[in-house]
Amino acid sequence: MADVVVIGAGLAGLTAARVLARAGQRVRVLEAATEIGGRVRTHEIEGFTLDAGYQVLFPAYPAVRRQLNVSELDLVPLPSAAVVRRGAQADVIGDPIRDPGGLLSTLRTNLLPALDKARVAKLALQLRGPEPWQLLRGPDESTEQYLKRQGFSDAALNHFFRPFFGGIFLKRDLSTSARLFRYYFRMLMDGGAALPRRGMGAIPAQLAAELDVSIGVRVTRLLPHGRHVTVVTSAGELDADHVIVATDADTAAHLTQADTARGQVSSTYLYYTSPSRLDDQERLILNLDGGLIHNAHWLSNAVPERAPAGQHLLVVTVLGLPERDNQALDARIRAELSRWYGSLDVQRLRTLKVERLPFAQYPQLPEYASTLPGHATDLPGVVLASEVTSMSGIQGAMESGEKAAAIVLDDLQVLSRPRGA
Ligand SMILES: Cc1cc2nc3c(=O)[nH]c(=O)nc-3n(C[C@H](O)[C@H](O)[C@H](O)COP(=O)(O)OP(=O)(O)OC[C@H]3O[C@@H](n4cnc5c(N)ncnc54)[C@H](O)[C@@H]3O)c2cc1C
């Protein structure tokens, strides 16, 4: 019998299990898929290193700092600026202190009116003051409403905030909660963005290093009785004192009867390889030409180890799940890339993979936080983890794992205390 069974080996479950194991508990993690990581995974295809979709790590995430040995992730910092592309024209917009190479372009570009550049500096000063968690409190509104209240022009919204933060929220309309905008803005100021050299999968791999994880085991029911919970799985039954449910929202609702339903934000990724360098840009490329491409990144320019020697790797992000037919989607993306690189060069690109991810995040509209479920469930001994208790992202998932583990440890202490103590 395990002291604690954790269901789901995503970042939430692995973080919870690691905290508990380090506190001396016998923990077993059960994962339905054939690999760990949940939505954070990395695969090798023909020598190219591909993450599940385009994901980056913000090293300033407090839970990352608390739980991970960041130096062992071998992080490659990404430039703190993006390139805004309109046809053949490419303007750099970014943080002139963190990315001095983009200073002149950021100052010169007419995409961002001078007053808006000053407003970005003012916003940075304003958001630097509070503790990061304080930015997630207070009255809420959409990111668009918030930016307009800060005086930003439509040009700033359309040329920078929608394409850049649309890539983080996976929604271009800036309808996402302004609390999250402020939090991510601050995370970017504090630590920029980075990619683990060997892929985002290095994050769950590090968390799982000392854990007992069984893969390919799907949990189907939880049956609390007395001071134990029987965990019914595709591979039989086992008993535990406590169970942490760290699955997706729908499975959590099925297993615990908690109201966890959140909805889904989807995205699609196309990976291209090239034997010649079409672009020497290391920065994320934002598309202002319209069409399906939201952004694109030459991953091998930023992290050369992501492609075999002499080869180049491009990932294109498309928001949502357009065009059911992969060939038709590929043809549309190639036509759009031709506006940047010319059709002859684009013909030389090879399509390595088309990946559709129906569930990347859950939607986080203003006031979403007030509707989130807590960690407690109606089942005795069963605690909820997962980003659905917090915010959709790496910080939210890991922090929820930490909190679920703390609740279980607290409960164990209460149980082991002599009566009346
Ligand atoms: C394309 C994409 C881009 C993203 N970009 C970013 C980003 O840039 N920054 C950021 O912070 N976040 C980003 N995210 C979000 C981030 O990856 C997730 O918020 C986080 O990984 C969620 O972790 P989790 O553990 O809560 O859930 P999950 O990763 O979904 O893990 C749940 C696990 O439970 C398992 N499971 C489900 N049912 C059962 C069952 N019955 N029995 C056993 N196991 C079960 C699943 O197989 C899965 O492994 C992105 C996500 C995607 C997909």
Automatic annotation (TrEMBL):
Do the record's keywords include Iron? no
Every Amine oxidase domain range:
11-409
Which keywords annotate this record? Oxidoreductase
Please give the Pfam families that the UniProt record associates with this protein: Amino_oxidase
Q: Which domain of life is it from?
A: Bacteria
Q: Which InterPro entries match?
A: Amino_oxidase, FAD/NAD-bd_sf, Flavin_amine_oxidase
Cofactors demanded by this protein = FAD
Q: Which residues bind FAD?
A: E31, A32, V219
Q: Which GO terms describe its molecular function?
A: oxidoreductase activity
The name under which this protein is listed is FAD-dependent oxidoreductase
> Upper taxonomic classification of the species?
Bacteria, Thermotogati, Deinococcota, Deinococci, Deinococcales
